[in-house]
Amino acid sequence: MAYNYNTQRKKLILPEYGRNIQKMIDHLSTIEDREERTRAAKTVISVMGNLYPHLRDVPDFRHKLWDHLAIMSNFSLDIDTPYPLPSIEKLHEKPEKLEYNNHHIKYKHYGLLTEKLIQKIKETDDPELKRVLTVLTANHMKKSFLTWNKDSVEDEQIYNDINTLYGGNIEMPEGMTLSHSKDLLQKKGKPANKPQAKNGNTNGNNNKKIHYKKHN
Fold first, then answer.
1. What's the angle, vertex CA 144, arms to CA 138 and CA 145, rounded to 5?
2. The whole model's pTM is what?
3. According to the UniProt record, where is the region Disordered (predicted)?
């Protein structure tokens, strides 16, 4: 007895539809009459749709079925279709290459936002705004550094790095101190537990015992 294994059969173009659907589509090309071939194709489309009933309400679902029919027939069927079918050239068309931002960041662990903040400091003439931006930027840099490297970092290093990025000696606000490392990396705490009801009631029934009187 000869066995016919799947590994010995022709590879399926769209395996999700199974071999029986592929056989139906292959049979369509043997139908000589164009109108009869079109009617048979519509029947095959209905069978394909029945495999995925949960997708019937998805927009363009039937359009996709006709596209898949064309693909599984190697675009060889001459039939009337309710939708324009894709061409084999369009199917194998390579997507356009994405353009990546080639912006050079001097210290990648500080990120592009830090450089934008420092540029804003350069452009600001308002002394108070410049002071606020400087403190904000320095703390942001410290947090970014600690996120990148969990070890502690000296504030002096942050001051040196901000001067390097600034391109000179930035005027630090008098008495400026940065936030503590643990405060910058502190995670939001869990929400507090719900307050317990009075008398220790937690289940809404006041835990009262029911006493029954004995009747003589």
1. 90
2. 0.46
3. 183-216
